Amino acid sequence: MEPENKHFKDRVVELSGENVDLCFQCGACSSGCPMTQEMDYLPSKIIRMVQLGLEEALESKTIWVCTTCFNCEVRCPRGIDVANVMEALRQLVLRRKYDRVSLDELSPEEIRELPQIAIVSNQRKLTA
Ligand code: SF4
Ligand code: SF4
Predict the structure, then answer these.
(1) The pLDDT of residue 40
(2) Which atom of ligand 1 approaches the CA of 70 most closely?
(3) Among 42, 63, 67, 91, which has the highest number of CB atoms less than 10 A from its own CB?
């Protein structure tokens, strides 16, 4: 089946270096992921969305919640590094220069109370 947006799929494959077409939706990545409760789409669903060329994957909370723990990579029977795919999707969002978190919008109280590592992590992962 031809993907809905072939260019999007090709870019994710190119950036991640992962052949998402090897995925047969066994769900092993999702069952071992420690972050699924915070995700809107399971990791296996994100892979399926990329297979189908569905650009909505870029709007998913999942790609930012992924902690790059590599549990999915060690479980995948097809050798797909799902974390690499998540990173590729984040890169595509960041290249659009869309700020998901702006320091200017945080109150002094929030800046004082938030863990510094969370702020640094936000700036590295969520901000263009
Ligand atoms: S790398 Fe991301 S998607 Fe994979 S198991 Fe860890 S948190 Fe879940
Ligand atoms: S573990 Fe691998 S083959 Fe199974 S659903 Fe996840 S990415 Fe696809």
Answers:
(1) 96
(2) 1
(3) 63
pTM of the model: 0.81
Domain 6-96, CATH: 1.10.1060.10
CA–centroid distance, residue 79 to ligand 2 (Å): 8
CB 81 within 8 A of CB 116: no
Q: What is the pLDDT of residue 106?
A: 86
* Domain boundaries, given as residue ranges, for the chain: 6-96, 100-128
Classify residue 96 by its DSSP letter.
T
Ligand 1 atom nearest to 32, measured from its CA? 5
Nearest to 81 by CA among 11, 7, 10, 20: 20
